[in-house]
Amino acid sequence: MKCPQCKQQVDEGAKFCSACGAEIIERATDFAWIAGIQEEIKDCRSNETAFGIICGIGILILAVPLVGWLLFPVAFDTAALAWAIPLGLAIAIAGGITGQHYHNKIKKLTQKLKGREMVGPQ
Ligand SMILES: [Zn+2]
Where do the domains of the chain lie? Predict the structure, then answer.
């Protein structure tokens, strides 16, 4: 087997590379690790979608009464705006920030996965 860091031949079952000192992770562990990261990315993706939808609902809560009021200022109950605007804004911001958090997490996990894949087959 080869060291993932320096590609030197190392003893089977060795924990560290004798040439560069890098930690040797066996393929089975590697596969489990990759599968774990992929699972995590999948979870983050569904969370990102869910919070994206929440953000969209917030924008709707904010926009619908606002547009209604702009179109029919006389017929519209302005009291509805008083709660719809802060409520919609809060939901949109909270959903947006949380969605962004998961978006960044996906990016980081993808990079982590790419970094490992670059090591290639041993
Ligand atoms: Zn090495």
Answer: 32-117
Q: How many whole angstroms from 122 Cα to the centroid of ligand 1?
A: 12
Output 49-52 pairs: Cβ under 8 A, ≥24 positions apart. Answer: 51/95, 51/96, 51/98, 51/99, 51/102, 52/95, 52/99
As residues whose CB is below 5 A from the ion ligand 1, the structure lists 3, 5-6, 8, 17, 19-20, 22
* pTM for the structure as a whole: 0.66
Which run of H or of E encompasses 11?
Answer: none
Give CA–CA dist 43/46, Å, rounded.
Answer: 5
The pLDDT tens digits of the residues spanning 15-51 come to 888 899 988 876 666 778 889 999 999 999 999 999 9
Backbone angles phi and psi of 12, in degrees to 5: -60, 130
